[in-house]
Specification:
The protein is mainly beta. Helices cover 13% and strands 46% of the residues.
Length: 551
């Protein structure tokens, strides 16, 4: 009898997967639904670090499944939709949970799926999923038409209970580049192959391999990340820059504690002249200086539905990856003092360190009250010193989900970033990768007011109205730290963009959407040509249509 109980417990444990594959942050449908479940008090969700893993999403959906009496009819349909997707490769197969259209016998090892199209194989050891990626966005205003087309494919696989791998490739073609590094937009950047008549091509390759267990995981990935609670642009780490390689560690040994660490390999785009050379046939080989980021985030839940997080990061360069920055729990500025200290006056050898705080309060049902503070540099003495400022950025916001009316969502968010935040006087240690800021998309000396109201009349159909007013001041040159902390905030407004939009989006299959948008924008100011694509300069009424299969 004792052995039968042990065997039964072992088989039960086999049904709970441990592999962790990140769900990309552009998967808006599941991220919005997870947030909705959290604000309804149905699941616990620490939203400070993204992406979430398939494992965490699946376990949250299973928890919601046990509380169906708390969900309305639209939420129940969305729960079944997403649970069907994640159940297929997350647990031992249960036919009642899997409702994805397939060709052939549902419970066989081999399945061709219809919507979204793909191929799946599963046996007792190995799981493999292959899917195509295809999409297009079409834009039209009084100036001209524009297109963004992309195509590629993705795979997910797991071997046994702990090892997983994934990859995603998208090749992009744009008739006009809306995502150059100078532009103050939320469009993700790319490393362009070249431009033609204002357009260009770039590819985005993401992927990773990971090992996980019940309370943690370690992985090597090339992916986008977002750190900091937000609904319109993260201001600790954002996904504005092209994805970069990262060594990641996630630990959750207790319900009240969550820890994240990453060590990333950034792209400096700063030429190392001592290592660059010209070949015998006259071709130039430019070698870039190495550049890295190390960052950690400690999250605590001191009270139910209260998530307090703090952490620090450092951008370092001109050396090999250093073990001092690869110890996950370190205060990296102190490591920098040990590693790069000098007694020679005026010699700049230090690296670029940051600190941050994040507070998300969900104790009031249907509400998320949140704030994020980014300290590029902090000296207590400056608080009382007239004419000097600490270079910090902060975000405050509130979201109401289903509180005023069922299926209605309201967001108000304000972001304020002082001069020289995210910048540095050493070119290899700026808060950038591929010359794109990896913090807030508006960069330093800026602010933004954002409102949105959204309604879901049907499952997976979202109708949203948005208002954004963004400003950017003078872009100061950060030469000397003592002078830089005296730069005033928004003394001169150099760029303003006011946007009103109405859009509808329907997720007709998992991570597959139809989109229709009307947008009015008014971009103006002395630097409008620098910060805004020509297509959106001045006053514009723009209509856009898009669709995608897969991400």
């Amino acid at each position: 009898m004792k052995y039968k109980i042990l065997i039964t417990l072992f088989l039960i444990n086999l049904k709970v997967f441990s592999q962790e594959i990140p769900e990309h942050i552009s998967s808006t449908g599941i991220y919005e639904f997870m947030d909705e479940l959290s604000l309804s008090g149905i699941i616990d969700l620490n939203d400070v670090v993204k992406p979430y893993s398939d494992k965490d999403i699946y376990l949250s959906l299973k928890k919601a499944k046990r509380q169906t009496g708390s969900l309305n009819s639209r939420q129940l349909k969305e729960l079944e939709f997403y649970l069907s997707e994640y159940s297929y490769f997350s647990t031992s197969l249960h036919e009642s949970e899997v409702k994805i259209p397939v060709i052939g016998k549902l419970m066989s090892k081999y399945n061709l799926t219809l919507l979204p199209p793909g191929y799946r194989y599963r046996d007792s050891l190995f799981y493999l999923e292959l899917r195509p990626i295809w999409g297009m966005n079409y834009y039209n205003n009084a100036k001209r038409n524009n297109y963004h087309r992309w195509g590629g494919g993705s795979l997910k696989m797991s071997i046994g209970m702990h090892l997983s791998g994934w990859a995603s490739l998208r090749d992009n073609n744009l008739t006009e580049l809306f995502n150059r590094k100078e532009y103050l937009t939320l469009e993700r950047g790319g490393n362009f192959k070249g431009s033609k008549s204002g357009g260009g091509d770039f590819s985005e390759m993401r992927g990773g391999i990971g090992y996980s267990w019940n309370w943690g995981s370690i992985s090597m990935v090339k992916d986008h990340v977002e750190w900091g609670t937000n609904y319109h642009g993260a201001n600790i780490l954002s996904s504005k820059a092209p994805s970069y390689a990262q060594l990641k560690l996630h630990l959750k040994p207790a319900k009240w504690f969550d820890f994240n660490y990453m060590h990333g390999w950034l792209v400096s785009n700063v030429i190392d002249s001592s290592r660059s050379f010209t070949t015998a046939n006259g071709n130039r080989r430019d070698v870039m200086r190495p550049k890295y980021i190390a960052a950690n985030m400690f999250s605590f839940i001191p009270f139910e539905k209260v998530y307090f997080s703090f952490g620090n990061s450092i951008i370092y360069s001109d050396m090999s990856p250093n073990p001092g920055y690869m110890i996950p729990f370190m205060f990296f500025k102190s490591v920098d003092h040990w590693l790069n200290s000098t007694d020679k006056a005026g010699v700049a050898v230090g690296q670029n360190s940051q600190m941050f705080l994040n507070l998300s309060i969900k104790r009031l049902k249907h509400f998320n009250l949140y704030t994020t503070v980014f300290f590029d540099e902090l000296k207590i003495g400056r608080i009382k010193e007239k004419g000097k400022y600490n270079p910090i950025g902060y975000k405050v916001g509130v979201k109401n989900s289903n509180g005023f009316l069922q299926n209605l969502f309201v967001i108000a968010e304000f972001t304020h970033t002082r001069p020289i935040v995210y910048e540095h006087y050493i070119s290899t240690t700026t808060f950038q990768s591929n010359d794109y800021n990896i913090g807030h998309y508006l960069r330093s000396n800026s602010d933004e007011l954002y409102f949105s109201i959204a309604y879901k009349p049907l499952a997976r159909l979202l109708i949203k109205g948005e208002y954004t007013k963004a400003r950017h001041g003078r872009s100061y040159e950060y030469i000397n730290g003592n002078i830089a902390v005296t730069y005033p905030f928004m003394q001169e407004v150099r760029w303003t963009n006011e946007v009103i939009s109405l859009n509808a989006s329907y997720e007709f299959a998992f991570n597959s959407h139809l989109r229709l948008t009307y947008q009015f924008n008014n971009a103006s100011g002395a630097d409008v040509k620098l910060f805004t694509p020509d297509f959106y300069q001045g006053k514009n009424h723009t209509f856009s249509f898009g669709f995608n299969l897969g991400l």
